[in-house]
Amino acid sequence: MPTEILDITLDFLPAESVVSFALTCRGLHAKYSVRNQILDSAARESLLLLLEKDAAALYYCYHCSSLHKWHPTSTTSRASTAYKLKFHTARLALHGRIRGPAHGPELEKLHMDHAVTLGSRNITIKESWAAKVIDGELFLRAVWNYHQGAGGAKTLGRWVEHDADRFICNHVKGSRLLEFPGAEGLDLSSVERLAGPVRSCPICYTDFQMEVRGDEWDESESESEDDEEAQRGSGGWSINVTKWVRLGACESPLDAHWQTLASQSAHGLECEPRNSSCEAGEIRHRWVDGKQKPSAYQGRFVEAGCLQVPHY
């Protein structure tokens, strides 16, 4: 291509595209030297994102506006039951699935299974996380199982009451949602099995469902037909919490999916809350059956009274 035509073409391109083009070979670099281009912060970010696509071993850091090498060992924190997923790790895993394994770790690196037993209370806590890419977006599913052995339903209820608020998100007060119909507050002895409806946070992109059930009762182990505690949950009690989180395309930590997830309320958000664009129950449905859109999603938004900050 004649140089004159190339010059005219490059005049129509933004500065970051010209710099990227100049880096393709020595001859072009000499003519369209990077030193002759002054990039503002937005153009610099665009340039580094362009380079990131071609340099599989590098990823763009939004915090320092630089390229860094990524390591195959980049995973979630597994030191405790607290699952911690950093934005750049999620973004790398998404790139690894979409662009190829050279661009990021396997999606399975975001999975985690953890169990701990609280001996003094005879309570076992199991936690499991899984990740999935649906239509170019990253989704997570988390499952918690709180189980207590024979008897002690009230003890389990009290334990979950103090710990349930961390289950869902920063906005939903989970302990308020565990007061199931038919039970006296968190006394599980009057509940055999109750699967709550699919609920959705109105602020961030999180759906969740809670279930209470008593383990099967063996009639031969009961000494009295009137022993209600033996007949209900004699083998133990379980509370299951499942949540589904939509993290989006992970293009920026400031996009709606990440910004709402990190917020404490809808106040001060630079984006619209989830309930303005995503229906209740939609995230769970996309995880379970992402290919078919139903006439109506099964789910409902959490009432304001069950939010950490009621007004949104």
List keywords for this structure.
alpha+beta, two-stranded antiparallel sheet, 21% strand, elongated, single chain, 8-stranded mixed β-sheet, 312 residues, 9 helices
State the separation between the terminal residues, measured CA to CA: 58 Å
Total strands: the figure is 10
What fraction of the residues are assigned to beta strands by DSSP?
15-25%
Helix segment tally: 9
User: How many distinct folded domains?
Assistant: 3
Q: Give the overall shape, derived from the CA principal axes.
A: elongated
Based on helices, strands and strand pairing, what is the structural class? alpha+beta
Helix content estimate = 25-40%
- C-alpha Rg, in Å? 26 Å
Overall residue-averaged pLDDT value:
79
- Reading the helices and strands in chain order gives HHHHEEHEEEHEEEHEHHE
Describe the structure.
The protein has 312 residues and is of the alpha+beta class. It is built from 9 helices and 10 strands. A hairpin with a 5-residue loop joins β7 and β8. α2 packs parallel to α4 (41-54). The strands form 2 sheets. Strands 3, 4, 5, 6, 7, 8, 9 and 10 form an 8-stranded mixed beta sheet that branches. The protein has a two-stranded antiparallel ribbon with strand order 1-2.
